[in-house]
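User: tokens in, sequence out, please.
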């Protein structure tokens, strides 16, 4: 278990994303919103929780067959696009206050996804040499 990850900026951001996604899910479920809203909030909660566990348990270092930061970036970008659509629809339609609250939380989650993308892009650099076999510049 990586005890430093929950206290890092990326760890706090993942935990915040998970909690906001869970709150969004609860708002959509409690208000009886469209099932697509609930499905998106559930998927975002589950996938973010899985990435949090992946980094917390250091499974990304054990499972080297996938470049996990890039997979995390792709997840965040795709989630941001879906959250933008669902958040705007929920705010525009606002069948009740729960749907409106879920839409606002979706847009907050969208911002957290974009911040996560920026932090991950700063972490990885394709120009940087990896390992000893890389040629010197």
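Assistant: Sequence out:
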């Amino acid at each position: 278990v990586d005890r430093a990850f929950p206290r890092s900026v990326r760890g706090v951001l993942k935990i915040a994303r998970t909690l906001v996604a869970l709150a969004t899910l609860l708002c959509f479920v409690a208000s009886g919103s469209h099932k697509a809203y609930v499905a998106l909030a559930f998927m975002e909660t589950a996938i973010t929780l899985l990435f949090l566990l992946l980094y917390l348990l250091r499974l990304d270092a054990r499972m080297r067959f996938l470049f996990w930061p890039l997979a995390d970036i792709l997840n965040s970008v795709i989630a941001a696009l879906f959250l933008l659509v669902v958040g705007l629809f929920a705010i525009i339609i606002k069948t009740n206050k729960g749907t409106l609250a879920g839409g606002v939380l979706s847009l907050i989650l969208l911002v957290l996804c974009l911040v996560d993308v920026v932090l991950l892009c700063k972490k990885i650099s394709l120009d940087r040499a990896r390992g000893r076999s890389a040629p010197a510049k």
